[in-house]
C-alpha cells in the first residue's frame, strides 16, 4: 500500500512557473493557464499510478500556495481584497497589485518553501468554498484515478495564522470546525473515500492550548463514511498521538526520517487499531534510500502489517521531479540520488519487500540500489584530507573577530562616512530576459568568455549608474553573473555538484535549483572578486561585496547525509572565509554575508535548538572572523520571526543586519528594540515580492514608523530583499521614492 503525502506541482520543466509569469504579463489567457495546470495534474497523477502508488493525492496542486488555497476554502480572505474576485483576488493576496499589499510570507516550518500567513480577527466569520477541491477530485476520477483529498487541518491553519487585533487565532476554532465538518460532509456526498488532513503544527512543542484544540477538533469532526488520516511531518508528534489514538480518525501519519522519536508512538497506534502511515522515504533530501535498511526498520515496528502503510516522510514538493533529464551529472553521483519519480519506485519496492511479495522486474532496481549504497560509502570523490586537516586545526583568530562590535562600528563610521539613515539595497537587481540570455549563451558555449565578461560588465555599468543617479549611499554590483545566490557559489566549490533540472518550488513561480553537497567542501579560486572590484572601480561610493553565508548555503542545499552536519557547515564556512579575505585585500570595505535561510534551519523542537544555534553561530563567525575591524560585515535575513532568537543574532556579531519589515510593519523590528540591540539594522520598507511601486509619501510613513521603535542613528533604509524578480520600470521609481523619502526624513531629523 504505497502512499505519497503530496507531489510537486511546478512541473518537471517548470511549466507552471512559465505559464504563471506569462499570465501575469498578459501574454496568455486564463483558459491557457488553466490548461497548463490541468495537463500537469494529469501527468503527475499518472506518474504515481504507473509507479504502483495506491494512495495518490488531489488538491496537492496549487497556483501559488496551499495556505492561500485554504484561506479561500474557508472564506477567510481579508476584507481589503473583497473588491476583487476569482484568481484576481487570489493573486492579489499572493503578489499584491497597484492597490493591494500582498499577505505576509514566511517559511513553511524548517523548509525552503514559503507560505502566506492568514490574517484573521476575533470576530472572523468563515464560509465554505470547495470549488477547487471538488473540481480536482472529479478531474482525477474522470481519468480513472481515485484520489485521497489533501486538506490543511484546522489546527494547523489556525496555529499558522495571525490576527489583526492581538487575539489568539486558536480561539476561532469553534467558528472554523463547522466549516470543516461541512467540507467532510460534502466530500462524502460526492464519493471521496479518504481525506488527508495535514497537521504539521503538532510537531513544534505543542502547548496545552494547541493540544486542547487538537482534541476538540478530532473529537468533533465526524466522517463515518470515509477514512480520515491526520498526517504530521518534519519531526515527532508524540504528544499529539496520545490524543489522536482516542479519537475517531482512521490513521495517523508519522515522519520516521526527520522524527525518529516517533517510534515511541507506534505501540499506542497499534493498540488503538488505527492505521500507521509510516513515512520512511525521505521527502526532503535526494539521496537514495537504503531499501533493505528501510524494510528492516519497518519489520521491527510493533504493529500488524495490515495496519501499516508505507509512505513518504512528507510531501515530495521539497525535492526535484526526476533524474531522467540529468545528462551531465557525474555517473557515480547520479546513482546515489533519487528525485520524486525515483522515490516512487523506492516506495513500491519497500512495500513489496515488507509484504513479502515477488519483486519481478524490480529485482534489477533493488540490486542497483544495493550497489549505489555500497559505492557511495567507499568513493574517493567524497574525501579531501587537506580540508579535514584545516578544520581540525582551527585557531581562535579564525573563529572570532579581533575587536567588539561597538569599537568596530566607530572605526567603520570614521572610514565610510555614511549619513544618518544610510540607503542601500540587498544585492540583486532585475534579472531581465537579456541577462538570462547572456548567461545561457555563455553556458551553452555559443558565446566566448571575453564577450560574456564584457556584456556582464555592461550590465554592471548600467546598474551602478542607476544607483548613483538615484542617490543610494552604499551600492551593489547587481549580481548579473549569478543564476541563484546559492547555485552560483556552489559551482565554484569542490565537493559540490548540480543537477541540470533539479528545480524545487520556493513560493509561487519562484524556483531554486539547490546544490548537491556530496563531499568535503573547499574553494579552489576566488568567486566574486573580479566582478565586485570592477563595480567598485566605477564609483567613489562604497560597493558591497555580496556573498552567501555558510548556514544558508547548507540550508538551501541537499546536504550529504553520511557526515555530521556540523562538519559540513564549518567546511563551507572556511570556503566563504577565503572569499571574504580576498575581497578585503582587494579594497572592498563592506561585505554582506547573507544568511537568508538562517531561521529556517532551526529545529522544530526546543530540545534541539541550542545545538543548532551553536553550530550556526560558530560557522558564521568562522566565515567572517577574517574581516578586519574596519571592514563592515552585513548580513541579511528574510521572512523570519526573530523574537525567540535575538541572543543568537547578537552572537553572530555582524555589524549590520537587514531584515524584511515591509509586509510586517514594526513587528519584527520590535524584537531588536526589546532586546536593546546595539548594532545596526537595515529595515525593509519596499516589498519587492509585489510589482506595486510605493509612493514617496507612503515610504516616509514607513521610515517614520521604523524610527518609532529603533533609533535613527542605528537604522539603515533598504528594500526587503533582492530585486532580481522585479522589472527595471518598477525598481527605478520605487528606489527613487525610497531615497527621496529618506532625504525628507533626514531633514526633519536635522530640524529636530
Question: How is this structure best described in words?
Answer:
This protein is an alpha/beta fold. It has two domains: 15-61 and 122-378, TIM Barrel (Alpha-Beta Barrel), CATH 3.20.20; 392-751, TIM Barrel, CATH 3.20.20.210. The chain is 42% helix and 13% strand. The chain has 27 helices and 22 strands. The strands form six sheets. It has a seven-stranded parallel sheet with strand order 1-5-7-8-9-10-11. β20 (656-659), α25 (669-675) and β21 (680-686) form a beta-alpha-beta unit. α1 (15-24) runs antiparallel to α2 (30-50), α11 (291-300) crosses α13 and α23 runs parallel beside α24 (646-652). The model has no long low-confidence stretch (mean pLDDT 95).
A few lines on this structure:
With 752 residues, this protein is α/β, with parallel strands linked by helices.
Give the arrangement of secondary structure elements.
Elements: H1 15-24, H2 30-50, E1 57-58, H3 66-73, H4 86-95, E2 105-107, E3 114-116, E4 119-120, H5 131-142, E5 148-152, H6 154-159, E6 162-163, H7 173-189, E7 194-198, H8 208-220, E8 227-231, H9 238-244, E9 251-255, H10 266-272, E10 275-281, H11 291-300, E11 308-312, H12 331-335, H13 340-354, H14 362-378, H15 385-392, H16 405-416, H17 433-443, H18 449-470, H19 487-490, E12 494-497, E13 504-507, E14 510-512, E15 516-522, H20 529-536, E16 544-548, H21 550-555, E17 558-559, H22 565-585, E18 590-594, H23 609-624, E19 632-637, H24 646-652, E20 656-659, H25 669-675, E21 680-686, H26 696-709, E22 715-719, H27 728-751
Parallel strand pairs: 1-5, 4-6, 5-7, 7-8, 8-9, 9-10, 10-11, 15-17, 16-18, 18-19, 19-20, 20-21, 21-22
Antiparallel strand pairs: 2-3, 12-15, 13-14
Helix pairs in contact: 1-2, 8-9, 11-13, 17-18, 22-23, 23-24, 26-27
Amino acid at each position: 500500500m504505497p502512499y505519497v503525502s503530496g507531489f510537486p506541482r511546478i512541473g518537471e520543466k517548470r511549466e507552471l512557473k512559465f505559464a504563471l509569469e506569462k499570465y501575469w504579463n498578459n501574454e496568455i489567457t486564463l483558459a491557457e493557464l488553466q490548461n497548463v495546470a490541468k495537463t500537469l495534474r494529469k501527468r503527475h497523477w499518472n506518474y504515481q499510478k504507473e509507479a504502483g502508488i495506491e494512495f495518490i493525492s488531489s488538491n496537492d496542486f496549487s497556483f501559488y500556495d496551499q495556505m492561500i488555497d485554504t484561506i479561500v476554502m474557508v472564506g477567510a480572505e481579508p476584507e481589503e481584497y473583497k473588491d476583487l474576485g476569482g484568481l484576481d483576488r487570489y493573486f492579489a493576496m499572493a503578489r499584491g497589485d497597484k492597490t493591494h499589499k500582498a499577505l505576509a510570507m514566511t517559511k513553511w516550518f524548517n523548509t525552503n518553501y514559503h507560505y502566506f500567513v492568514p490574517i484573521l480577527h476575533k470576530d472572523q466569520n468563515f464560509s465554505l468554498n470547495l470549488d477547487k477541491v471538488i473540481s480536482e477530485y472529479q478531474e482525477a476520477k474522470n481519468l480513472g484515478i481515485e484520489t485521497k483529498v489533501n486538506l490543511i487541518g484546522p489546527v494547523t491553519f489556525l496555529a499558522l495564522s495571525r490576527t489583526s487585533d492581538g487575539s489568539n487565532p486558536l480561539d476561532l476554532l469553534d467558528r472554523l470546525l463547522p466549516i470543516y465538518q461541512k467540507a467532510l460532509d460534502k466530500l462524502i456526498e460526492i464519493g471521496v473515500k479518504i481525506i488527508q488532513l495535514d497537521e504539521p503544527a503538532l510537531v513544534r512543542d505543542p502547548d496545552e492550548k494547541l493540544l486542547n484544540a487538537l482534541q476538540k477538533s478530532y473529537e468533533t469532526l465526524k466522517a463515518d463514511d470515509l477514512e480520515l488520516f491526520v498526517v504530521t511531518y518534519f519531526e515527532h508528534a508524540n504528544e499529539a498521538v496520545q490524543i489522536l489514538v482516542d479519537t475517531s480518525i482512521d490513521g495517523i501519519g508519522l515522519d520516521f526520517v526527520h522524527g525518529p522519536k516517533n517510534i515511541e508512538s507506534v505501540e499506542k497506534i497499534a493498540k488503538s487499531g488505527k492505521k500507521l502511515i509510516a513515512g520512511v522515504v525521505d521527502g526532503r533530501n535526494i539521496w537514495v534510500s537504503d531499501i533493505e535498511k528501510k524494510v528492516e526498520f519497518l519489520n521491527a515496528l510493533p504493529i500488524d502489517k495490515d495496519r501499516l502503510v508505507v509512505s513518504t516522510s512528507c510531501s515530495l514538493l521539497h525535492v526535484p521531479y526526476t533524474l531522467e533529464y540529468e545528462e551531465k551529472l557525474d555517473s557515480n553521483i547520479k546513482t546515489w540520488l533519487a528525485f520524486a519519480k525515483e522515490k516512487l519506485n523506492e516506495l513500491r519496492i519497500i512495500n513489496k519487500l515488507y509484504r513479502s511479495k515477488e519483486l519481478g522486474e524490480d529485482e534489477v532496481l533493488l540490486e542497483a540500489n544495493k550497489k549505489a549504497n555500497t559505492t557511495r560509502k567507499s568513493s574517493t570523490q567524497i574525501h579531501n584530507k587537506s580540508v579535514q586537516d584545516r578544520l581540525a586545526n582551527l585557531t581562535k583568530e579564525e573563529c572570532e573577530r579581533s575587536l567588539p562590535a561597538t569599537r568596530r562600528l566607530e572605526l567603520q563610521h570614521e572610514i565610510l562616512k555614511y549619513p544618518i539613515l544610510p540607503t542601500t539595497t540587498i544585492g540583486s537587481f532585475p534579472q531581465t530576459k537579456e541577462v538570462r540570455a547572456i548567461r545561457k549563451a555563455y553556458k551553452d558555449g555559443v558565446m566566448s568568455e571575453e564577450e560574456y565578461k564584457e556584456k556582464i560588465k555592461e550590465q554592471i555599468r548600467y546598474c551602478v549608474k542607476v544607483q548613483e543617479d538615484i542617490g543610494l549611499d552604499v551600492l551593489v554590483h547587481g549580481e548579473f553573473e549569478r543564476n541563484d545566490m546559492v547555485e552560483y557559489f556552489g559551482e565554484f566549490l569542490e565537493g559540490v555538484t548540480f543537477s541540470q533540472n533539479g528545480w524545487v518550488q520556493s513560493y509561487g513561480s519562484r524556483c531554486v535549483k539547490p546544490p548537491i553537497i556530496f563531499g568535503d567542501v573547499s574553494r579552489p579560486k576566488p568567486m566574486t572578486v573580479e566582478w565586485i572590484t570592477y563595480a567598485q572601480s566605477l564609483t567613489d561610493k562604497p560597493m558591497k561585496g555580496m556573498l552567501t553565508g555558510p548556514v544558508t548555503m547548507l540550508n538551501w542545499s541537499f546536504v550529504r547525509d553520511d557526515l555530521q552536519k556540523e562538519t559540513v557547515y564549518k567546511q563551507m564556512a572556511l570556503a566563504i572565509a577565503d572569499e571574504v579575505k580576498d575581497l578585503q585585500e582587494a579594497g572592498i570595505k563592506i561585505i554582506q554575508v547573507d544568511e537568508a535561510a538562517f531561521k529556517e534551519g532551526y529545529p522544530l523542537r526546543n530540545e534541539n535548538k541550542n545545538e543548532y544555534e551553536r553550530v550556526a553561530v560558530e560557522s558564521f563567525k568562522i566565515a567572517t572572523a577574517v574581516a578586519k575591524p574596519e571592514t563592515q560585515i552585513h548580513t541579511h535575513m528574510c521572512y523570519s520571526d526573530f523574537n525567540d532568537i535575538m541572543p543568537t543574532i547578537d552572537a553572530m556579531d555582524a555589524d549590520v543586519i537587514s531584515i524584511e519589515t515591509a509586509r510586517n510593519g514594526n513587528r519584527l523590528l520590535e524584537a531588536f528594540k526589546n532586546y536593546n540591540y546595539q548594532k545596526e539594522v537595515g529595515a525593509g520598507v519596499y516589498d519587492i515580492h509585489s510589482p506595486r511601486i510605493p509612493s514617496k509619501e507612503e515610504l516616509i510613513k514607513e521610515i517614520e514608523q521604523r524610527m518609532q521603535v529603533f533609533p535613527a542613528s542605528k537604522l539603515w533604509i533598504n528594500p526587503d530583499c533582492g530585486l532580481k524578480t522585479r522589472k527595471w520600470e518598477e525598481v527605478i521609481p520605487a528606489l527613487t521614492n525610497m531615497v527621496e523619502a529618506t532625504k525628507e526624513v533626514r531633514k526633519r531629523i536635522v530640524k529636530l
